[in-house]
Amino acid sequence: MSPQAVSAAPVAACDTRSNNTYQKLLECMTGEGVTEHLEAFQKIAENNPDPEYGTTRAAGTPGYQASVDYVAGLLEDAGYTVTLDPVEITYAFPPELRQLTPVAADYETGVFSGSGEGAVTGDVVPVDINLTPPRASTSGCDGAYTEAAVGEPIVADPTGPDDFAGFPDGAIALIQRGGCSFALKVLNAEAAGASAVIIFNQGNTPDREALALGNATPPPGSADTEIGIPVVGASFADGSALAQPGSTAYVEVITETRIDYNVIAELEGKNPDNVVMAGAHLDSVTEGPGINDNGSGSAALLETALLMANLNPENTLRFAWWAGEEQGLLGSADYVAGLSEAERDRIALYMNYDMVGSPNYIFMVYDADESTFEAPVVVPAGSEAIEDVYESYYTALGIPYDDTEFSGRSDYEAFILAGIPSSGLFTGAEVPKTEEQEAIWGGTAGEQFDPCYHEACDTINNVNAYALDVNSDLIAFAMLTFAYSTESVNGVPGKEVPGPKFVLPEPAGPEGTFAGEGAGAALGALN
Q1: How many structural domains comprise the chain?
Q2: Considering 230, 253, 276, which residue would you say is the last residue of a domain?
Q3: Do 346 and 469 share a structural domain?
Q4: Domain housing 451
Q5: Is residue 249 located within the same domain as residue 287?
Q6: pLDDT tens per residue across span 139-184
Q7: Would you state the pLDDT for residue 348?
Q8: CA dihedral (23, 365, 300, 445) positive or negative
Q9: Which residue, 91, 38, 33, is CA-closest to 61?
Q10: Is the pLDDT of residue 525 over 80?
Q11: Terminus of the chain with fewer CB atoms < 10 Å: N or C?
């Protein structure tokens, strides 16, 4: 069967029949159907404002809980076995960053994931910062701790250079982005006696000028796994102002623990011991409703699940909508950690969908075969076979695609750390599109793949309908493929998908527009 042979089916038929062939499933999988869920997420954020942040679906807010209710309700009505899996998240009240001397100024800021809390007034002490172009920086990377690579455990380092030599006890550490993980910088500062940490953006490229925020949670296995001091962000310009001699500042972070829920929906197949799993994070950042990040992945996955509800699949299907991804992959990490070894062994593969409709998109697939990027993590065997399905589908439609680093920078991290084959799709975040990419995919060179990434403008108007439509079809296609056989991934025999065959060609290969640009080019930097 040709991909172009598919046309839309009546909605009533789609809801009641078993969409167990590629033709039936793809004619029912429409951009309009996915967009209805996006519109629902937008209304949820507007109708359930958070007292502190307003229109958002962030972890710990009414908008997130209403999103859970919406997704879980539709899945239960469709006949899935739905589990609400509780997850502890940290709700951070709006933080403060105020310079007291030599000038008085309030600065835009935010809380890093993993931050401690408290209200601190003190001297601001720059730590090995570099304000002179090209502003190469390893600020805060050398100290009491070290790491083999970003994402690897942080361990004690009793020898070697120390950026914090002579650091005054109780001072506020001013640290520049770059060179190592945020977690390493913060642990080194805390070990040196800092009372708080301000991490300001590096300023070496246009996309590293604005307010810097990220995840400072130490990876599992680290010598110290919790941060006990406030950690806030700043732009390069504000960090430069705070670096003035005689600078003092006030930093405040107040948090509380709340309970959110992962939504897990399962459809048992003929083989209950071979589970095909796919997930997307349901939470947004506090700044807005998060319709591309990650309403797009959540909506496409939800529509896929609803259209597959009447299947009698060969393998068991499990769909997940994760809590607290924006706080450091909390929901997915908690879920995998809570599985027994036998339960983990049942999971044949995991597919991740985080931002699949970026307005200035390019089509990207997690680079499991490392044809463009050397992965900073161990790639579980079988992951390449999932990548091949995505790439072959794009090839069949004549759609160019590229690689994005297989880095673990989303909810697939916990799965790959558990040795579970994984892959996923991505259309870009904060990285600017190049002229070469504009020539291939259209859009606007020089603008971010998602100009509203982690901003209030990530609304229903911040999604490219074409990219969303293509990727929604691919998400459904991949789920149906593995619903019947995962033999290419884990060697477990299955059956062919019923109906006319959808013959996939060999992958055409990535466009290579990131080749030589460094490990962070596709997904954005991890530090």
Answers
A1: 2
A2: 253
A3: yes
A4: 3-90+258-489
A5: no
A6: 999 999 999 987 789 999 988 899 999 999 999 999 999 999 999 9
A7: 98
A8: negative
A9: 91
A10: no
A11: N
